[in-house]
Structure formats: structure tokens, C-alpha cells
Amino acid sequence: MSETEWTPDQPIVSIKDVHKSFGDLEVLKGVSLDVMKGEVICIIGPSGSGKSTLIRCINALNDIQAGSIQVEGQEVNAPGLDKLALRKKVGMVFQQYNLFPHKTALENVMMAPLLVLKEPEDEVEKRARALVKKVRLEGKEDNYPGELSGGQQQRVAIARSLAMNPDVMLFDEVTAALDPETVKEVLVTIKDLAAEGMTCILVTHEMGFAREIADHIYFTDRGVIVEHGPPKTFFKAAKDPRTREFLSQIL
Amino acid sequence: MAMLKSIPGINSASTTDMAVLKPVSVATPGGASDINFSRFIADLPWWLLPALAAIFMMWPLAAYAQSTYTMADATSALVKWLPFLVFQGFVFNILISITTMALGTFAGVVLGLMQISPNRLISKPAWLITQTFRNSPWLVLLFIVMLAFPFKIEIGGLIIQIPDWIKAVFGLSLPIMANISEVVRGAIASVPSGQWEAAESLAYSRQQTLWRIILPQCFKRMIPPWMNWYAILTMATPLVSLLGVEEIVTLSRQAMAAENGRPELLVPFYGFCLVIFFAYCYPIARGTIALERKYTVKL
Ligand SMILES: Nc1ncnc2c1ncn2[C@@H]1O[C@H](COP(=O)(O)OP(=O)(O)O)[C@@H](O)[C@H]1O
Ligand SMILES: [Mg+2]
Known about the structure:
A: 2 domains, 6-stranded mixed sheet, 4-stranded antiparallel sheet, 9 helices, B: mainly alpha, MetI-like fold, two-stranded antiparallel sheet, 10 helices, 68% helix, 3% strand, flat, binds adenosine-5'-diphosphate, binds magnesium ion
């Protein structure tokens, strides 16, 4: 293992020339991007362009065939990777929430710190209640996921992920399955997080939100990053015809 | 008693309006056909029981009209032997079925968990064992176990005779084990993969994910097919009479022999066996269907 000491002035997530195939289908064809600590980046692009695959590679839910992904200097693609250590650093929120339906909202938030981090229960409960409050779900602690709306479930999922005290948060189209009315409450939660300095990597179709919150925007198409830049230049002066076509369709 | 709590989305309707929450599969493990046996039994009307009993008792009258043997004779013969058939015979069938189910369930759960192991050296053999015993004739399995098993085992200086019924239990356990293995595998597979991924991304180990997240969600879904297999097994216990185990069918034959082997008794006596199995399995089948309805996830 090439264990070079990571310092916060280096990218917290560093992706270099990543290739990923499912069987014969090459989904990522040499993707590179760097994320600094505290940065918020948004990945946009047409469906099937490999956005989910890319961020799932960051916490080793998918493996990669070539290239390198480093999180805080640690190589994710290393053969002897300690996946659990990686996943303690990287939180992930999914489009379908994936809350544990047999546990209440509070239990959903408390379970991983208790079971995985083996922290004392009273401490975990205090933190979990604070997180539930932070995602504006006070009073819903004892509700089961089935009793919550989609937007509420998604905020529990965010709190559940935050309970592990991650350094990086991945969001994979977390508002795509929501009713229009509840999209906003989830976006507000993410905005709060970003404002507190959490490093966030988001896949999203909410262009207004991306423009408002992102430090940097990446546009992917068919497994490559076609174009990227800070939101101001990206939205006003997209150069590549593919980007322009995508933006004209979605805006 | 935590398992009996009402959990929306697991055992009662969920109030959420989100269509996207629908899990990939809402069916019972292995599909609805899993409990077809119970469904058939449970759909039969309850009055079939007295109706069958009446037909079996009248049979001698109709079939042997010219004979001197009357229905009263058949009835009194059956009544005389009834306590013997029930308490020596049928109770033994139940004992065999319960012991077999306990053993088969234990082995089946282990085998089912092996089937979903990420290690192919474990999952492949488990799959092969499951398929082999699921698709073999029960009677053949019984004979093999019967002949392959030693008649007695020696522990230290102690010689223990293995009674035939214990060997029969081992034989019947094999198909039960294989079918329970499939129930377990199917139930686990019916949990949406997002649950695994969510747990994985929260740094749960595989074991933690399985025992804390996945199995608690599908435990209830395994109960109806498990009960279904119990009813099928109970109905199959007379097979062991072919091996000389003294259960209800063997004892019926003995009783009829003691009544001079009158042919008029065949239908009432075997009919009684049929009725008593039906009476025992009917409530189980009704319960299976009721639970199935209750536990089917409605999201
Ligand atoms: N587990 C998988 N097995 C096979 N193909 C997959 C798998 N996951 C994704 N793909 C394929 O990879 C491509 C990119 O998928 P994805 O990363 O989900 O795209 P996006 O998130 O941009 O819509 C799609 O063609 C999809 O069908
Ligand atoms: Mg996607």
C-alpha cells in the first residue's frame, strides 16, 4: 500500500481515469475529477450516462476495472481495501431512500452507530435526536418509514447517513422519486449541510438547485465527462453541443 | 413479542402515498404457488368432513348390498378400534411430523443461508443439495435412509438401538430441509436489493446486514410457506407405514386383520384415516392462507 499522508489541502476525493464495465458494456470510459474538502459538486447528464455508477464507485459499492479513486488519500481500488473503514468516511443517500422498514425513524438513525461504531447508546440517542431535529422531523422519531411521506423518509435517510459522522456525502438523485411539494424540503436540508461545510457529491436533475449550491458542475454523457465548470460559466457559456442540447431540454 | 408489533408496510398498510416505494417483489418467497397446497385445502368447505365420513360409512351397504354385513357392524368395528387408531396411530403420525419438521427446519435454514453465501464453494454445494432433495421422490429418500442407516450405534460401551421411526424422521427431513432451504432463499431474495446497499453503505458487515436488516424483514413472509410444508409433511407421514413404522395406516391394517379382514371394512377404515388427516390439516391450511394474506406486503 502506498500510504502517503493525506492533508486537507489535497483533494478529499480524487478520481483519475476511471474505467468501469458491466460485462461487455463499458459504462465509465476514463472519468477524472477532484473534490476539495468542503466543496459541493453536482454531476448532471442524461439517464444512463453512468452518473450513479460513478458515485457508487466512490464508496466501493461498485468496483472499477482501471484507474484510481482516492478518498482522503486512501486508494479505493486497492485489493486489500478495508471497505468498512471507507464507508465510515463516505455517507450515501439513494433515490429510493432505502430506509429499514421494520425500524422507526429514530432507530434507523441510531442503528449503524450502535452496531457498527459500537458507541454507547445514550450518546448515540442524543446525537440521533439532534439529527432528526436538524432535518426538521421532530415528533416523527417513533414513526415507521411506512408512515412517513417520501420527503420525510428521504430526510430520515440523510440523518441516518449523517449519524456516522461521514467526511463526504454522496447523493444519487435523492429528489427524483419525490412529489414536487416535498422536493424542496429535502433540498433545504442538503443546502443546510453544504452551508456547514460538508463535502457533497450530488447527482441531480434539479438545475436551479445545482446552480445555486454547486461549486463545480460536471456534465457526463455516455461514460465521459463532456464539460465542467463553475455554475456561472457552465450554464451561461456551455461550449459542447451535447451539453447545450441537454440544457435546452431540461431548462 | 416485538415481532408482533404492527409495522406499516411490513404487516399492515402503509400510509405513504409514494408509488416508488413498491418493492420489486411483493409475492411470497418463491412465488404464490408456494402455498398452493394450503390454498386448495383451505378452499374446501368445512362440511366436506362429515360428508366424507358419512359416505365412507355407507360404503359397505352400497358396495356389498347382498352381504349380511350391516352398517351397524362396520360402525361398531370402527368405534371399537377408534381410540387405538387415534391414540396409538395418529398421535404417532403427529409426533413424526413435528420431529421431522423441527429437524428439517433447522437443517433447511442452515442450508438456505448457505445458498446465499457469497462464497461459491459454499453456495454451489448448498444449491445442489437443495435441488437434489427437493426433486427426489420422498419414498426413495426414505428407503435410502432406512437401508443406509445403522440399526444401532455404539457410544462408549453403550449400544443404542435406533428405532425405525427415528430413521423415518431422518428420511422425511431431507425433502423438508430442501424445501425450507428454498423458502429461506426465496424470502431473502424477495427483500429489495436497496436494503443491502443501504446497509452496506452504512458500513454494516454482511452478517450484520443479514441478521439485523434482511431476516427481520422476511421472517414473517416465511411462516405461511413453512406451515404449508408442515401440512404436506403430515399428509405424507403414512409413507412410513411401508417401512413398518406403527403409525395410523399400519395400525388400521392390523385392526382390520383382527376383524377377520372383512373387505367391507376397507373403505370405512381407510376413509377414517383420510378424514382425520383432513380434520388436522384443514385448520392449518386456513391459518396459512390467513397469515399469507396478512403478511403480504402492501405498500
Ligand atoms: N449492476 C449493473 N449491471 C449491469 N449494467 C448496469 C448495472 N448498473 C448500471 N448498469 C448500466 O450502466 C449504465 C449506466 O447506468 P447508471 O450509472 O445507473 O446511469 P445514470 O445514473 O447516469 O442514469 C446503464 O446502461 C445501465 O443499464
Ligand atoms: Mg442514476
